Amino acid sequence: MSVPLRITDRFINGVVVLRLEGHLVFDEGDAILRERVTDLVKSGARLMLIDLHGLSYIDSGGVGALVEMDRHVTRRGGRLTLLCPSTCAIRALQITHLSTVFEIFQDEEQALRSLTAVAPHPPGSAIGRAS
Q1: Is 11 in contact with 17 (CB distance < 8 Å)?
Q2: Beta strands in the chain (DSSP E)
Q3: CA 91 to chain centre
């Protein structure tokens, strides 16, 4: 039986910190994560730190949701980084080779400094776009 995904959020210096606990799995947790991130972006959030320390299980649908949300935030001029992945999250990110794609931090202060050091780019800006 799957442990429902719980997401708590808090705001620190313009960064939304989302703490995930439970199972991030296809058709359950992934929908919850997508909805939460999409709502936050609609309300203007552009800097997100996703704390994976409390994940007890993640499947390919959960990994896909992380990738999709990263793209969603990035396309709107923001940044999404990961914090303290649990053992199962590290394994899933390594197997999929996403551990080299995502910016991953073990220290929250360092992650927050990194996110706030560079202002997000407005959507449609020339920065990061192929000519």
Answers
A1: yes
A2: 6-12, 15-24, 47-58, 79-83, 104-105
A3: 16
Angle between helices 29-42 and 60-75 (to 10 degrees): 10
What is the share, in percent, of the chain residues with pLDDT greater than 70? Answer: 89
Q: What is the pTM of this model?
A: 0.86
105 contacts 83 by C-beta, under 8 angstroms: yes
CATH for 69 = 3.30.750.24
Is position 126 within any domain?
A: no
Domain extent for 39: 6-115
Neighbours of 28 (CB within 10 A): 18
* pLDDT given for residue 128 in this prediction: 40
Whether residue 70 is contained in a domain is answered as: yes
Conformation bin of residue 106: beta by default, left when phi > 0, alpha when psi is -120 to 50: alpha
Two tokens at 65? 């949701």
- Tell whether 91 is covered by a domain: yes
